[in-house]
Amino acid sequence: MIAEPDGPEDRLRRFATIWSRAVFPVTSTSSTRTEFETQLLPLARRLSEALLARAFDSEAGREVGAALVDAHCTDPEALSRTLDCVDAYLVLYCGGDGDQEDLRARCARLQHAMAAGFARALRERTLAEQEAIAQAALQAQGVVAQALHASEARFRAVFEGAAIGIGMADLEGNILQVNGALLRMFGVSDQTLRSRNVRDWTHPDDAPQTWRLYDELVRGEREHYHLEKAFYRPDGTVLWTNLTVSLLRDADGDPQYQLALMEDTTERRLLNLRLRYEATHDALTGLPNRTFFFERLEKAMGAGEGQRFGLCYLDLDGFKTVNDSLGHAAGDRLLVEVADRLQSCATAPGEMVARLGGDEFVALTTGPDTQREVDELAGRIMNALLAPISVDGRELTVRGSIGIVEGPAGERSPAEVLRSADITMYRAKSAGGNRFELADPEADARAITRHGLTTALPTALERGEFFIEYQPLVHLGDGSVRGAEALVRWLHPQHGVLGPDRFIPLAEHTGLIVPLGRWVLEQSVRQAREWRELHGGVEALGPLRINVNLSPCQLTHPGLVQDTVDILERTGVAPDALCLEVTESALIGADDDLLKPLRRLAEMGVDIALDDFGTGYSNLANLRRLPVSILKLDRSFTQSMQQFPADPVDLKIVEGIVSLAHSLDLAVTVEGVETGAQAEQLRILGCDTAQGWYYARPGPPERLHELALVDATG
């Protein structure tokens, strides 16, 4: 297969070329530079695949690091140049269009893995050399009587020519012999080094078992040991080594000498520390990142009895506006300044600040008295954000919303703590922002329940968990049932029956309101047909209509008119049997494009009702341009009529609305009628129909049929 010009394969080969040119001068291979590039190409492809894999696996980096050793790239400079090349060019040539921040993080982790793989392979190779040296030494000692001169020659060749440092000492620790590699590692002369005693080489970073193992070896209780050890050089710098010490016995098996083999790991250790820092710190702000923060939070959660923690979860208010208006470069400078200010707020022992990503930061405090300390920490953070931040000559005001979680260690997992802080932060943001809120278990539970309902909505519709109840619409003049409003319910497997106020806003937010609304419309229209068929033999019963609510999202859906027409045609129901209710707030300031579908439905004969009238503060003059035939007066205007005497102001308002509606040929329906006195007063004022608990609560369709029969025959 021939790659397209400048395709992924071409970019991969260019990366391999750059890599080979950087590393080839410090390799010990007999291959040409072109042949060496051919060896590196599959390694470059392995790194590219690991960088772009759906699930990141650092094993690829370790394999590539080990493969470098197999390719004779054993000089530490070869590893350093390789990591520099990967850091500078891997994402550039092999990253594609992915998330650059994520790719850079992956690239850093690959470098860390490559260094680890390189170190492990080099250590294994070194240990093999060490084993050969030890065997040579033992062999030289064991065959002294037979071939002393030949053995000494072989041992001297290995001893002097080895790339690792070798030293021999007696059991008292007096150094007897050292090779050139060891002298170069310490930067001293042979005489200086041989004047030292092994026991003088202590270091503050020595592992606790270091000298215990040494004592056991010189006593003959162990044959060898291996560990990482630091040494001071004469100039005060530190030499880090992989140290292997072996015991040499005489012909009778008694301990005689100790042989030390040292591999210089100083550069590798510094590289690992740098890679560790890059993997645990945010590249933009220098703060600890999400990985480091979770390590600290897990440690805080596992603290002993009596220990507590406090967590502040900060999200900047309106940060997206800065990025959108001034650009991401300005947004980055703002984040750097915010990070510096936050860092100055957490200087006490047990406190830290980290950046989780974007404009989200966390501050953690630990200790026995975090109930007071976390409030003080949140206050310091809010105060730190008061002063404007200068970006590109503009003074930007920065505000933040903070969610605070505080409690004893060990009771919750880090994920649960962070989730609670996140929920609390959004509660502070929804309350206006520029404030902090304390975590509330009940509020957390409600938020988690809302999330659970949101994720369960799609499958609930597929599983048929929704059902419809119907509330009668009664004519105030003669008390007859004229129809019903369809009200959808959700029979949730865990939470039982949920009213529309619990899930309709979630359905609006997710867009599921469109298929759910279509289902409600079809079920309700089919029910209207069944009522009409049942009432066909009862002459006193007029045709029963069905009222169905339309959400703002449904109003803007392009399939509204066609879906309605299809449902009416499939069920064989006339358009005048259907009334679609639209809230007044959804039509405030509506343009002709939004009103066009409603006008088409009204022209077909479908009634349009303006629901919750009086709550949207709309201009009454707009009624002339709206394609509505019914006003549904909000219950807030009629609540005072439940008692006698009614509020005269409310009476005048309702009387005026009814008069206005009738002058425009609009019928008036009243919601929330709960008493007979209220119903009578509304009848006197001229309202046409009403619904409410005074007549009946929402119920199954059979109850409406029974009520209609009672009205007709009673």
Automatic annotation (TrEMBL):
It holds the Pfam family PAS_9. SUPFAM superfamilies: EAL domain-like (SSF141868), Nucleotide cyclase (SSF55073), PYP-like sensor domain (PAS domain) (SSF55785). Residues 450-712 form the EAL domain. Residues 225-277 form the PAC domain. Residues 307-441 form the GGDEF domain. It comes from the Bacteria. InterPro entries: Biofilm_reg_signaling, EAL_dom, EAL_sf, GGDEF_dom, Nucleotide_cyclase, PAC, PAS, PAS-assoc_C. Residues 151-221 form the PAS domain. This is Diguanylate phosphodiesterase.
